[in-house]
Amino acid sequence: MNNFTLAYTDLYQLSMAQVYFLKGKTQETAVFDYYFRRIPFKGGYAIFAGLNEFLELLENLSFSKEDIDYLKTQNFDDSFLDYLQNFKFKGSIRACREGEVIFSTAPILQVEANIIEAQLIETILLNTLNFQTLIATKASRIRLVAKEKTLLDFGLRRAQGPGGYYATKASVIGGFNGTSNVVAGKDFNISISGTMAHSYIQSYDSELEAFRDFATHRPTNCVLLVDTYDTLKSGIPNAITVAKEMEQKGQCLLAIRLDSGDLAYFAKESRKLLDDAGLDYVKIAASNQLDEYVIRSLQEQDAPIDIYGVGTNLVIGKPDGALDGVYKLAFSSGKPRIKISESLTKTTIPHRKQVYRNYDKNGFFAGSDVIAMIEEKEIEMMNHPYEPYKTLNIEKFKKEALLQVVMQNGEKLNDSPSLEQIASFSKERLLLLPFEYKRFDNPHIYKIGISDALKKERDLLIDSHKN
Ligand SMILES: Nc1ncnc2c1ncn2[C@@H]1O[C@H](COP(=O)(O)OP(=O)(O)OP(=O)(O)O)[C@@H](O)[C@H]1O
Ligand SMILES: O=P(O)(O)OC[C@H]1O[C@H](OP(=O)(O)OP(=O)(O)O)[C@H](O)[C@@H]1O
Ligand SMILES: O=C(O)c1cccnc1
């Protein structure tokens, strides 16, 4: 699916890059931070996703001859277009591991490159990381309430165009088990599964015949959709008949699927009918506008649902639809850089930085990360980034540096982890986050602070610009 070129960008990146180029800034180093300001879904954490695709894209990113021909029609300077023709990203990147549990304000990733390269990759970076992080976070919330139940992504048909491809991948990072999306299954080695549509049953004069043909010609992992006409009076009795016929052939019906009505009620009644027929191994799948709240409710109602198929609400990241991740200049030409805003929360944090996660004595996340200057070693205090008098003593906590070098001279330093490895890392990390931060309603606020040294630098820079 990755046939992007560097033209996958916003025009202003190219306009700025041309100015840098014509001003001879091809050797000028810049550092940019990637972070977001607000945790999506009013939640207490997010899950970082998309890093692997981003690094792979970046290694191969260039302008095609057709891109350059097109740019020739857009009033760019010929010498700049010659430079773009040979463009290759040669910078370095430090980042959290993909799957990491992340919070607002602290950099998740830092790019260091010549200013033209660093600027030109902004759009594709944000486009890749914001979306996958949003969807992995949504998936993680759904996993939290679904406990050990099987979660399948059914969203491709309602995704924002091709976004569905990466939504499927991100949903696995957040804890989904499989997908109906065939191409994502193939490319990312995700287990694919599926049932049948109402149209298939409607196309027959008899629901029973429809089930029977399906079971005969597609017996492996066969799931029968039982709600086309009357779930309890027709769908389930017909499914039982076909399950019994399958038994005669040494086959097993995997599941029935409910797709409308009161899913808890129908699941309970269906379970009874199946069990009474000696089909306790036949699972119950449910779908229909599910999200973390409906699934939480179904779980609380003890609905005997084994498999949840989740589509729209997952892949479009409803209700947020976007992560507000931003890419901000922190350092260039040997100087720290800042963007000042009326609102302190929009004032950027300058310098090359490291982010440390604090651990409590039991090895769980202690509820705070501190952003420090990259060269700082001992950090004893952290300051609220925007409220001057709020400080926290963090001396006693064990600390872990979250940003590690993942790309140098434009080359990835490590082999790409498999999706399974990323998902299992994410699961392990989420286990270290106390429940209060995972709560949907008014979750505990995870503290992000800045070190004394960084605060001093930032405030000096604000003062120097104000004067
Ligand atoms: N027992 C339940 N507890 C909580 N939410 C449920 C329960 N059963 C179903 N839901 C959810 O309630 C919503 C019902 O939506 P809607 O009224 O559109 O469904 P429906 O009328 O049964 O289905 P359709 O319109 O597809 O025939 C869905 O999001 C569904 O997942
Ligand atoms: O509700 P979502 O979470 O988005 O899950 C996917 C939905 O897509 C399908 O319906 P659709 O009406 O498209 O096709 P169908 O005829 O197979 O039901 C499926 O039956 C689910 O209801
Ligand atoms: O396999 C299914 O049941 C399925 C796939 C996509 C969307 N809705 C349902």
TrEMBL record:
Ranges of residues in domain Nicotinate/nicotinamide phosphoribosyltransferase: 151-348
PTM notes: Transiently phosphorylated on a His residue during the reaction cycle. Phosphorylation strongly increases the affinity for substrates and increases the rate of nicotinate D-ribonucleotide production. Dephosphorylation regenerates the low-affinity form of the enzyme, leading to product release.
Catalyzed reactions per annotation: 5-phospho-alpha-D-ribose 1-diphosphate + nicotinate + ATP + H2O = nicotinate beta-D-ribonucleotide + ADP + phosphate + diphosphate
Nicotinate phosphoribosyltransferase N-terminal domain mapped to chain residues: 9-130
Function: Catalyzes the first step in the biosynthesis of NAD from nicotinic acid, the ATP-dependent synthesis of beta-nicotinate D-ribonucleotide from nicotinate and 5-phospho-D-ribose 1-phosphate.
Protein name per UniProt: Nicotinate phosphoribosyltransferase
Protein EC: 6.3.4.21
